[in-house]
Design goal:
The protein has 904 residues and is α/β, with parallel strands linked by helices. It contains 30 helices and 31 strands. The chain has a 4-stranded antiparallel β-sheet with strand order 6-5-16-18.
Length: 904
């Protein structure tokens, strides 16, 4: 059999994925078991403008592990892919292209032509991230790929809007919104970000307003003096005695000459500034709410372009808002009404996309009463703790608190690309909300209708993602009936509000069920300095570069081990897992080069009690690992699964089982014994590859295809009738057979491994040449270890390069000039040193080991002498520490004897 000496990840990645996709292995229909349980994941749809970043790679790895694991367990598994139309991002991208290539704006083209150009751009450039997902090994069902602007999904959006409008949950009216002067659109509170101001901007201005008919002045403190031109009141706390006599009085607003009242409101904090607050209902959300309570006029002095309006006065009209700020401050200073300017740290609100400072404005928009839709999900999380969040803390409480405090959602966006609001107006201004133009015309009784120019917030369509992608609003759609509710949502913490809560709302509202059972919140990957990765900082790590350098499988194993924890990216970890992949390849290559006469599934005939110790041991370790991995994946503890798999492959299988079996596997004489030994090694390897497959799909498939004896009968029964090439991804995931987990075999093998390891350490520390044989004397004690070591003599001799091995109860008669090691349980091993070593060097080695053990014993005894530890720690932990302490004492005594022997 020809097997390359080194593993080529790229070749495996390209060949196997294309075959899996071509043969339909990712589709749930490959499962022919009509009674199979269902497992569903819908992907958080990446922006159609996007390219793969580490956050995507982390989420996709977790989802693929879960999908492949459940598929191998026989679930009818659907991982549904798709992309989001990303309203603002996509429109900006196409507008930039227009300006660069044609020197035109979207207005030059007109709406219809511009939309056509966006679709063309999407077809040409928008599929990059889906191509990159194939590189990751994502086993999504591409036949069900969705796009939020697909006609069916658009129909679902219109249905959502119309139903909510008919029920009074959606309305159109004036309201305070976040306005981006650059993107020229409204934004929800979840689309803006708070950012600390720069030092030169961190100022608090103290302005004085004269009291009418008095020499008295009221000082207000503000961070935005330009908005004073739109003030319509000054508010104080009703409990603030300083201003009790001024409530109801009139102030003269400087620069404008408008008379404004002093009002009392509980919202005012007497401790902030001077305790008197200027109220600008048209330019601050809190002032807007207070203005409505008190019936204050709304004077808009800043427009949609962040310039001053005629209402600001002739001196200010047309000025940019920050220019107006400077002029206002200068004029107040000239009038002697600027009390002071103080340094003051605060945060400013910016557009989450273009980073422009947001302008709060009153605008007529479309709104959704979220609190109505949130009642069902709020009840579900409070009464049933569903969905189940992983990690539970703090995300479950974050989600619950958000649902408990929902406010109206600004739906409309002043864009062209997106789902256009399904509302039409007649010449008289009457509005008709309908599913389509024909329906609107019937309702209006006229054809003279004009559709609302705005589009819906991108998150409006995303809120429907789990149901619209499965066929809603066709409530009898086969996929909706089969795959909803979904099993788990894997997502990032920053969209719990934007997306997670809203999918639960729409799922319960329109499909009568929660959108998903569990929510797994992934961690955040920072750069090596602990900074967030971003394009602007230039500190991002491109997953494709990592794939090219180390392979997809190694990268996936790192990402899976990250799971829900925040971490700093480190290429060293990926390199170590690439070495792990090479270790597996080399071990498997040895097995395959010695596979003549062997077949997977043979070699373990008869009762386990008749098997050799190392065979009982590896089967026990395999089943224990299967149990640990299954439990870890089921609990979303992916790092634990990675740890178990890594140590089984590296330590148990590669380092020990192959070495323990090597003499039988490579025996010169062909025969049943050699073939059985080879079959056993290959059978364990095949089962281990199945365990590893969800995490490292490519190397496992590459090796599995080379194993003798695998085929259609190796696949899970649910897939045997499918017309696909046999593949490990459709093989049955190993289930732990508890009867084969042999505690005694594992304990005995640990003793043999420790003995061999101790002797190898002695050889290494004494620089004994690999070709030079030593003599071993084993003091096995009276606990039965003697029989174990005698039964394992051929392996002990071969693995330690020992010419002679003597086993007795003690080391009586061993030359005092011997290197000794104490094993767990009290057994000892000695290597006579005559002719092997420098005695001074050996004394130093033994001294170092004794010093190390003495420090460990001191630490253990300190814990055991602490009454609080003994009382509070679990009893088994205390007992374990006592046993460890006794063992350390025994080993220290033996090392002391060694030092005495070496001194002579």
């Amino acid at each position: 059999m020809e097997i390359p000496k080194t593993y080529d990840p790229k070749q495996a990645e390209e060949s196997h994925y294309s075959r899996w996709e071509r043969e339909g292995c990712f589709a749930p229909e490959v499962n022919r078991d009509a009674s199979a349980p269902v497992y569903t994941i819908v992907i958080p749809p990446p922006n159609v403008t996007g390219s793969l970043h580490m956050g995507h790679a982390l989420q996709h790895t977790i989802m693929d592990v879960l999908t492949r694991y459940h598929r191998m367990r026989g679930f009818r598994t659907l991982w549904l892919p798709g992309t989001d139309h990303a309203g603002i991002s996509t429109q900006i991208m196409v507008e930039r292209q227009l300006r660069k290539e044609e020197g035109k704006s979207r207005h030059d083209l007109g709406r219809e032509e511009f939309i056509r150009r966006v679709w063309k751009w999407k077809e040409q450039y928008g599929g990059e991230i889906t191509r990159q997902m194939r590189r990751e090994g994502a086993s999504v069902d591409w036949s069900r790929e969705r796009f939020t602007m697909d006609e069916h999904l658009s129909r679902a959006v219109r249905e959502f809007f119309v139903r909510c409008y008919d029920e009074g949950l959606i309305y159109r009216g004036p309201g305070m919104i976040n306005w981006c002067p650059k993107d020229q659109t409204a934004l929800s509170d979840l689309e803006v970000e708070k950012e600390p101001t720069k030092p030169e901007e961190s100022k608090l201005y103290y302005l004085q307003y004269p009291v009418k008919g008095s020499d008295r002045r009221v000082t207000v403190a503000t961070t935005r003096p330009e908005t004073m031109l739109g003030d319509t009141a000054v508010a104080v706390s009703p409990k603030d005695e300083r201003y009790a006599d001024l409530v109801g009085r009139t102030l003269l607003l400087p620069l404008v000459g408008r008379e404004i009242p002093v009002i009392a409101d509980e919202y005012v904090d007497p401790e902030f500034g001077t305790g008197a607050v200027k109220i600008t209902p048209a330019h601050d959300p809190n002032d807007y709410a207070m203005g409505k309570r008190h019936g204050l006029p709304q004077v808009q002095v800043i427009d949609q372009h962040a310039r001053m309006t005629p209402e600001a006065g002739a001196d200010f009209e047309g000025l940019e808002r920050y220019e107006a700020r400077e002029l206002v401050v200068r004029k107040f200073e000239e009038l002697g009404l600027l009390e002071k300017v103080a340094d003051y740290e605060f945060s400013i609100t910016k557009c989450g996309r273009c980073r422009t400072v947001i302008e709060p404005l009153i605008s007529t928009q479309w709104f959704l009463k979220q609190s109505e839709l949130g009642r069902g999900p709020l009840r579900l999380i409070r009464e049933e703790r569903r969905p189940h969040f992983v990690p539970e803390n703090p995300y479950e409480k974050v989600y619950e608190n958000w649902l408990a405090g929902l406010y109206d959602w600004t739906l409309s966006r002043q864009l062209w690309w997106g789902h256009r609001i399904p509302a039409w107006y007649d010449p008289a201004g009457n509005v008709y909300v309908a599913r389509n133009l024909e329906e609107a015309r019937r309702a209006a009784g006229t054809n003279e209708l004009e559709q609302d120019p705005d589009v819906l917030d991108t998150w409006f369509s995303s809120a429907l993602w789990p149901i619209s992608t499965l066929g809603w609003p066709d409530e009898d759609a086969a996929d909706l009936q089969t795959f909803y509710p979904t099993s788990v949502l894997v997502t990032a913490r920053d969209i719990i509000f934007l997306w997670v809560s809203r999918m639960m709302m729409t799922g319960m509202k329109f499909a009568g069920e929660r959108a998903f059972d569990d929510v797994f919140i992934t961690g955040t990957i920072f750069d090596k300095h602990g900074q967030r990765m971003s394009k602007t900082k230039g500190n991002g790590v491109d997953p494709l570069d990592v794939f090219d350098k180390y392979g997809v499988d190694a990268t996936r194993l790192v990402l899976a081990s990250i799971g829900s924890t925040d971490t700093r990216w480190n290429d060293n970890q990926v390199e170590s897992y690439r070495n792990f992949a090479n270790k597996i390849w080399n071990a498997a290559r040895f097995c395959l080069l010695n596979s003549e006469g062997a077949r997977v599934g043979q070699g373990f005939e008869g009762e386990p009690s008749t098997w050799a110790l190392h065979d009982r041991w590896i089967v026990s370790r395999l089943n224990r690992t299967a149990r640990e991995v299954g439990a870890a994946v089921g609990a979303y503890q992916f790092h634990e699964a990675v740890y178990a798999l890594y140590h089984f492959f590296w330590d148990d299988f590669c380092d020990w089982y192959i070495e323990l079996s090597k003499a039988d596997v490579t025996a010169a004489d062909a025969g049943p014994g050699r073939d059985a030994a080879r079959s056993r090694v290959l059978t364990v390897l095949e089962q281990a590859l199945r365990l590893l497959h969800p995490f490292m799909p490519f190397i496992t498939e590459e090796l599995w295809q080379l194993l003798p004896g695998v085929g259609a009968e190796s696949m899970h029964p649910a897939y045997r009738a499918a017309a696909v090439t046999p593949t490990v991804m459709l093989a049955e995931f190993p289930r732990a057979d508890e009867t084969l987990i042999d505690e005694r075999a594992e304990a005995e093998m640990r003793s043999v491994i420790e003995l061999v390891s101790r002797v190898r350490n002695i050889r290494t520390e004494l620089n004994v040449k690999p070709s030079e044989e030593v003599r071993l004397v084993i003091g096995a004690g009276a606990d039965g270890l003697g029989d174990l070591f005698n039964a394992s003599l051929p392996q002990i001799r071969r693995l330690t390069r020992a010419a002679e091995v003597t086993v007795g109860e003690s080391l009586a008669g061993v030359p005092r000039a011997s290197a000794r090691a104490v094993l767990a349980g009290g057994a000892e091993v000695a290597v006579p040193l005559e002719g092997l070593i420098d005695f001074g060097q050996e004394r130093a080695r033994v001294g170092r080991e004794r010093e190390k053990l003495e420090k460990e014993l001191q630490k253990a005894e300190a814990q055991l002498s602490n009454p609080q530890f003994v009382e509070r720690a679990p009893a088994e932990k205390v007992e374990e520490l006592r046993q460890r302490s006794a063992d350390l004492g025994q080993r220290i005594r033996a090392l002391t004897e060694m030092l005495e022997a070496l001194a002579e």
